[in-house]
Amino acid sequence: MEKNSLNKAAMTPKERLNALLGAAFLMATSAVGPGFLTQTAVFTEQLLASFAFVILASIILDVGAQVNIWRIIAVSEKKGQDIANAVVPGLGYVVSFFVVLGGLAFNIGNVAGGGLGVNALLGFSPTVGAIMTGVICIGIFLSKQANVAMDKVVRYLGAMMILLTAYVMFVSSPPYAEAALRTVAPLELDILAIITIVGGTVGGYITFAGGHRLLDAGIKGQENLRYVTNTAISGIVVASIMRCILFLAILGVVAAGFALDPDNPTASVFQIAAGEVGFRMFGLVLWAAGITSVIGAAYTSVTFLTSFHKSIKNNQNYWVVGFIVFSTMVFAIVGQPVALLVLAGAFNGLILPLTLGSVLLAAHNKKIIGNYKHPVWLTAFGGIVVILTAVLGVRTLFISIPQLF
């Protein structure tokens, strides 16, 4: 993607730090999309303080998936689809199909979320807001230093989302002690909630966003594993901080006896906690979540197409622009395609076990990773995540498909 990508020898410490931060925030903000906000609100209202345990368990599983995938991408110096093709010829194309299909469908939802954010913030129609969101994202990828611009945008908007949500958390005065206790002693245990949160944080294209970004930046090989591992964990930490702050903000509202609006639960949290100003803040957070997720979904989905033809790799930014244009046009003309989103959501549940499973097989194949020895505990950790997400993915697929007809 970057014609002037820097390798480790040519990269200054500042440039490397910017690339590492960009990768961590790209992964984190790809996870923190409009669906993330709604999902957290719904589960918090259902489980109350016990949702803290779900967050803790999901963080542990997220790390198991993320670290495995990022490390093998780095040592093999291959992108996710190329690793899958090396394990089983043709598997990479299957993986690419699922990732791009899910990324495209969810990107339509991300554009819609950006439009709704602009609507709440400025009062413009969601369609106008969606077009504004798409135009800004296109401008980023058409700039001369697209990757530098992308890294900065996701970092700054990610930090802004955390700060604004933290303000609402403090205003809502959640029961901190109760939340801390239920982190290790939940009153209610919801396994499906745990797996759903895992899929929403590192499922589909999300877990590859930062790993592919580091590869494009030239941060790869065994000599860079320390940077890669730390960045993978940092991405999970950033997304988890946002999840925890949002959870506490919501908990403060529902613990005070307020009922959330089922049509827009997160907006009602901000409005109940901070009034009209809070509602405008929600619009800004939702817009930031939408725009950063559009960037992450479009960039990562296209990286899965670069193995199909050299022209795609050589013109990657233009393909990303096309991806965003198409997503924006579908929402602007047709509206949110609910049926497609439901089916893509079912497929998305199968992507993580498929991709992580192929990565774990590659982790012990010397033809792919050379003399690198992958820790056995990491393989076992990843295997648990594969089994859990595969079971839920199949279950979701069989539930979702009949709903389309």
TrEMBL record:
Protein's UniProt keywords contain Transmembrane helix: yes
A Pfam family assignment: Nramp
Stretches that traverse the bilayer: 47-65, 86-108, 120-141, 153-171, 191-211, 232-259, 279-305, 317-334, 340-363, 375-401
Keyword 4Fe-4S: no
Biological process (GO), any one: iron ion transmembrane transport
Membrane topology: Multi-pass membrane protein
Alphabetical UniProt keywords: Membrane, Transmembrane, Transmembrane helix
A GO MF term: manganese ion transmembrane transporter activity
Name of the protein: Divalent metal cation transporter
Organism: Salipaludibacillus keqinensis
Lineage: Bacteria, Bacillati, Bacillota, Bacilli, Bacillales
